[in-house]
Amino acid sequence: MKINKGKTIVLLAGTVLTAMGLHAGAFRASGPVALSDSVKTETAAVDKPNSVVDEVIWVVGDEPILKSEVEIMRLQSEAEGTKWNGDPECILPEQIAVQKLFLHQAALDSVEVSESEIARGIDDQINYWISLPQIGSKEKLEAFQNKSMTQIRQDLHDDYKNRLLVQKVQQNLVNDVAVSPAEVREYFKKLPVDSIPMIPTTVEVEILTQTPKIETEEINRIKNQLRDYTDRVTKGETSFATLARLYSEDPGSARQGGELGYMGRGVLDPAFAAAAFNLTDPKKISKVVESEFGYHIIQLIDRRGDKVNVRHILLKPNVSIASIDAAKERLDSIGKDIKSGKFTFEDATAYLSDDKDTKNNHGLMVNSVENSRTSRFKMKELPTEVARVVDTMKVGEVSMPFQMVNARGKVVCAIVKLKARVPEHRATITEDFQTMRDIVTAKRRKEVLHDWVVKKVKETYVRINPRYRSCNFQYEGWLK
User: Fold this and answer.
1) InterPro entries from the entry (predicted)?
2) 201-213+320-423 sits in which CATH class?
3) Is the dihedral of CA 30, 32, 36, 41 positive or negative?
């Protein structure tokens, strides 16, 4: 069995992986980590190509696992304060090996992730870091990481791509896992009282957003800049790929010269897809296209069946402080009308909210964490800006306007209503049936994924350095 070559995943975090019991310490940090001088020195030593630690310690399929990979992950994890449930020298190489199995399956199944998906994940991570009290701005994040924002985004790109690939493979494997109400009740009945989980405080939140208007001058500036790029390429002054590397604001594709790879229509923004699939001549460049991410020009590379490979350059218009203030003023007026009884918050969302995900659901935010599709959120599951506002609100209260970044990476202004708050309590089958069903479902999914890994291990060529043979691995079958 041949394992696809790929970068070791160090940003794998997610529902299914957590359910499998893979240690979070090997994956994405919750915040940016500044390594100590001693750790930096050790890491630098590990990175030396001729270092003694650059030995092959495992082989999975035809893919080697180097001692240096494990050592770097260990040092990063220690800097993050990871507590290991076992020996990290055994835990980490096994996790890397499991990741390689999932990536190989992704290649076999032709699993794809779009650059827009990757970019959204990177934006979410960067926005989260910036929201931390010790960071607070892009400039401080760059200083904290000792890297430019472009470098930070580039460093995150491949890891986020691999993370999404693995998550999609795992989701495909557990899609059909379902449990009946009877199974949930039976599981709950057998639980000792002290094993019944405590349910943390949860909230239900309704949201109404207004998108700050972009000034016509700013839109024209962006469009003219993109048209200038088109003229320069058409005149032969430079290549499209060069301009994409220099100027595109899509961090995922910029370093690839704007190339997205073969994509189906369904994974692309509709307006972008329409323009991309309308191209027939690789020498021609599209007109300026507006998508939910900003403004683009697109160049065809190749078309293969129902998939297209294009390059693009993305520019995002800047939002002025005046536009943000105007959006907040509109929301302030809406909030006053709600409080005076002119109309309800729920009615207002249908007619006045710009949030496509909630406006047809009375503004009710939906929590997709762990694919539960519930309206209840733990505070840590809410967008950072929303959580900060909701934390001090009373049930039924409508907030003052505030600025936030939405799920599509756009600056919006919002008001929220706290619909409900359920204090921390021990789970009951009547009040917390959905939570208990999620627990039982997660348990079943963990079992399915565990069995899949064990089966793949048996089918795959594995060679392990003898000194690891005393390890107590999570998955049986590595030692052959």
Assistant:
1) OMP_Chaperone_SurA, PPIase_dom_sf, PPIase_PpiC, PPIase_PpiC_CS, Trigger_fact/SurA_dom_sf
2) alpha beta
3) positive
- Residue 312 CA to residue 417 CA, distance in Å, equals 40
pLDDT tens digit sequence for 147-189: 888 888 888 888 889 999 999 999 999 999 999 999 999 999 9
The number of CA neighbours under 13 Å toward the Cβ of 114 is: 17
- What is the predicted pLDDT for the residue at 6? 39
Q: Residues in the chain, how many?
A: 480
pLDDT band of 80, cuts 50, 70, 90? low
Q: Which two tokens stand for residue 455?
A: 């089966």
Q: Which residues lie below 8 Å from residue 220, measured CB to CB, with a gap of 6+?
A: none
| CATH, domain range 15-178+443-468 | 1.10.4030
Q: Where in the chain is the domain with CATH 3.10.50.40?
A: 201-213+320-423, 216-315
Sign of CA dihedral 24, 391, 198, 376: negative
The listed CATH number (3.10.50.40, 3.40.50.1010, 3.40.50.720, 3.40.30.10) that belongs to domain 216-315: 3.10.50.40
Range 112-134 average pLDDT: 82
Provide the H-helix boundaries in 51-148: 67-79, 88-108, 115-131, 138-145
pLDDT digits (tens, 9 = 90+) for 208-255: 999 999 999 999 999 999 999 999 999 999 999 999 999 999 877 887
Burial of 317 (C-beta count, 10 Å sphere; 0-12/13-18/19+):
middle
